[in-house]
């Protein structure tokens, strides 16, 4: 049953992916092919724009055991599990929640704390070493501290993180840290309170800022701030977000706007990586590329002299499928092997029907083996049925 990472990587076959992207709004043309992307309208070197997930370092975790359950047909090893613990949220962000709301899964059909812990333990025993708790909004779950405590005690788990909108995080974070939470991502799409209320359909901007400061004060380094960039909404604040990294250990992560059911995605709202980068470099010319892990979803940079860092998540214009190591367990117990894939496999139903761990492992392994080499292009994704983001998990 147990295999070793180098052996898995021997079977690795990089997907032959070549993607051309033309941003008509800016005149930027970029090509991502065989791990290299180039902008034909700037002076950056290939290293500046090279995608972060094209090099597989065979000895990165040499000797770590991994179950065949976690290795797909392209040799990708899945050691990162994202668990959505709730479909409910106390915000109504426009890129996440449809205008008329979402029909949520009835509570009895959601995973209980014990079911979450059982499945997480199964994944960790098979080689998962990082878990991220998502939602909806995970902090509104009443037993979130207990979930964190039980997960953090699992042997082999190296990182336990959370993605949150920050509304209630400031008062809950000290306890969550005591319970083993090791990393924090806070979503914030604008630095303007009035715009925050417009984009999220709720108030609370000052609470999110308070949560970012609280995470810094508690020693989280970096505190990751996720910003979905949308044209006409917050693209005028890009450099203001970079300024957050000057004095504090904040990692600002610019995320390309992605299509999900109900979020009225339109390519005109998309601000591409190359355009965001151009705006940043226009003001911060001393932006330097950092060394990325082969499985990073982000391209990582630092402005010279800044304490924090700046990252770009380029799911639409330069995908990073070749290095993907992520699986998703949804709040209703479905396993999703790709964020943009419609295919799901229920783990809740067989578990509640009495399936033992070996049977669950077979189900998981089959789903992982069916994972495709890469997700579809953004225009195809916009026309493909998928869940709203709030029911997948951020």
TrEMBL record:
Protein name: GTP 3',8-cyclase
UniProt entry keywords in alphabetical sequence: 4Fe-4S, GTP-binding, Iron, Iron-sulfur, Lyase, Metal-binding, Molybdenum cofactor biosynthesis, Nucleotide-binding, S-adenosyl-L-methionine
Pathway note: Cofactor biosynthesis; molybdopterin biosynthesis
Cofactor(s) listed: [4Fe-4S] cluster
Catalytic activity: GTP + AH2 + S-adenosyl-L-methionine = (8S)-3',8-cyclo-7,8-dihydroguanosine 5'-triphosphate + 5'-deoxyadenosine + L-methionine + A + H(+)
Gene (name only): LOC110805770
EC number: 4.1.99.22
UniProt keyword annotation of S-adenosyl-L-methionine present: yes
CDD domains, per the entry: Radical_SAM, Twitch_MoaA
GO MF, any single term: GTP binding
